[in-house]
Write a structure and sequence with these properties.
Number of strands: 7
InterPro entries: At4g02000-like, DUF4283
Number of domains: 2
Protein name: DUF4283 domain-containing protein
CATH architecture of the largest domain: 2-Layer Sandwich
Shape: elongated
CATH class of the largest domain: Alpha Beta
Radius of gyration: 23 Å
Strand content: 15-25%
Structural class: alpha+beta
Organism: Sesamum alatum
Strand order of the largest sheet: 2-3-1-5-4
Length: 168
């Protein structure tokens, strides 16, 4: 009698695992303060000091220095925030920078695979200076925005803003 193939045995055992959607079977650590993770990637050709990233971003984001942070990979960390409001605020105020490098942030919902969080692109705001008042309008802003990526919105809410130095 031959020994069973270990890979086949592992596969057969895996097929017998049952998972239930019943939330009553899920365990929840009530001391877990890591409910609102945000994935953060610093776009840089250099390997950066993760302690420096944590220290700088916790100050910039005005979150507690005791915030739990996990390193995912080179220049990619997950900050586990205490509140959804903090996560929403940090993400909505993007883009951020660290030592002149772009910081890409995305909320992460742990029911999704971490490696599926898209950190390849981010929203940025562009400021165009030197335009005459005639060219400071939504149509020109859309044309400029679409020439560099996807246009989202213009910060031009009143006629008086047309007289400012820049189109954003």
């Amino acid at each position: 009698m031959e020994d069973a193939d270990p890979v086949e045995t592992l596969f057969d055992n895996a097929l017998q695992i049952e998972v239930s959607d019943d939330e009553s079977e899920l365990t929840n650590d009530s001391t877990d303060h890591t409910k609102y993770p945000i994935v953060t990637k610093i776009i840089s050709g250099k390997i950066l000091n993760h302690n420096a990233i944590k220290s700088t971003l916790t100050k910039a984001w005005k979150i507690p220095s005791k915030t739990h942070v996990n390193t995912v990979s080179q220049n990619t960390l997950v900050f586990f925030l205490d509140s959804e409001d903090d996560r929403r605020r940090i993400w909505s105020q993007s883009p951020w920078s660290f030592r002149g490098n772009l910081v890409v942030t995305r909320p992460w919902y742990p029911e999704d695979a971490l490696d599926e969080v898209d950190l390849a692109k981010t929203q940025i705001w562009v400021q165009v200076t030197g335009l005459t008042v005639v060219f400071t309008n939504k149509k020109i802003a859309e044309k400029i925005g679409k020439s560099i990526g996807k246009f989202i919105q213009i910060n031009l809410t009143s006629e008086n803003q047309r007289w400012r130095r820049a189109l954003r």
